[in-house]
Specification:
The protein has 8 helices and 16 strands. It is α/β, with parallel strands linked by helices. A 7-stranded mixed sheet has the order 8-5-4-3-2-1-16. Strands 9-10-11-12-13-14-15 form a 7-stranded mixed sheet. Strands 6-7 form a two-stranded antiparallel sheet. The structure holds zinc ion (2 copies). The site of one zinc ion has 6 residues, from helix 2.
Length: 258
């Protein structure tokens, strides 16, 4: 499985910046997990290949350029863009984003080929298919309805925590998978901001290290993501000090193969 954390900003050479401002993981060039930077970080060729987007929750950093992405592709979509999300998240997207005020309600619109966007409600705790992948979603502990995911193909399983604080169902799911190749887990705030992390339901390196004790697998890559750009260096240092085997920070723009 090929996974890229799409960059959201670029340095003055046009190279992906290390800071992660938005969240969008591109899997095997065809499925996106969240859509923060989807409209700004893909080439035209890549843009045409994505047909399925899983939205874990409706926070802006995870959906920021989703409306723009569909808008860009509007005339060329020969099949609707499928947005996979829980019914609660679909309702929030319709109410707060695709509401004719913030952006058009694409789920009501058609081009010459037919509908341009289709919601696919996802079940909790039950496997479902997205393109060539099998996905299981469970609720995690964030301030809006949010799912964590395990995404598998024939050979590989990768877990995505999305945004969360201390949680239980996600670890039950992750630990139930036969073999886990990688865990992509959030580490949003430095240890000194534990209070803010708690109220906004995110991890710090310290709370993440406690949480990782619930993980029964070992030997997989543990990729820290969602580091708040303003505190990145501090968080990176605190993560390194944990000396957890396999733990490193995921780099935007880099392709990882599992
Ligand atoms: Zn969030
Ligand atoms: Zn977020």
């Amino acid at each position: 499985m090929r996974i890229k954390l799409l960059p959201s900003t670029f340095d003055d050479q046009g190279v992906a910046a290390l800071e992660q401002r938005l969240t969008c993981f591109l899997i095997d060039d065809s499925v996106a997990v969240d859509a923060g930077s989807i409209a700004i970080a893909l080439t035209n060729e890549q843009r045409g290949k994505v047909k399925d987007i899983i939205v874990t929750h409706p926070h802006m950093d995870h959906i920021a350029s989703l409306p723009i992405f569909i808008d860009d592709l509007y005339p060329t979509l020969e099949e609707p863009m499928r947005v996979h999300a829980t019914p609660e998240v679909i309702e929030l997207l319709e109410r707060d984003v695709f509401n004719w005020n913030v952006y058009p309600r694409f789920s009501d619109l058609k081009n010459d080929y037919g509908p341009v966007m289709e919601y696919v409600p996802i079940p909790i705790g039950q496997p479902f298919s997205v393109a060539h992948l099998t996905v299981i979603a469970v609720q995690v502990n964030h301030i809006v309805p949010t799912v964590g995911l395990v995404v598998s193909d024939d050979r590989t399983s990768v877990a995505f925590s999305s945004d969360t604080a201390e949680t239980e169902e996600f670890w039950k799911l992750v630990n139930s998978v036969n073999h886990l190749d990688a865990l992509l887990i959030e580490a949003s705030f430095p240890n000194g901001m534990a209070r803010l992390a708690e109220v906004s339901r995110h991890f710090t390196p310290a709370s993440l290290s406690e949480e990782l004790k619930k993980l029964t697998h070992n030997g997989m890559d543990i990729m820290a993501v969602h580091l708040k750009p303003s505190y990145r260096q501090e968080i990176v240092q605190q993560l390194e000090e944990l000396r957890i085997p396999g733990l490193r920070v995921m780099e935007p723009g880099k392709i990882y193969n599992w």
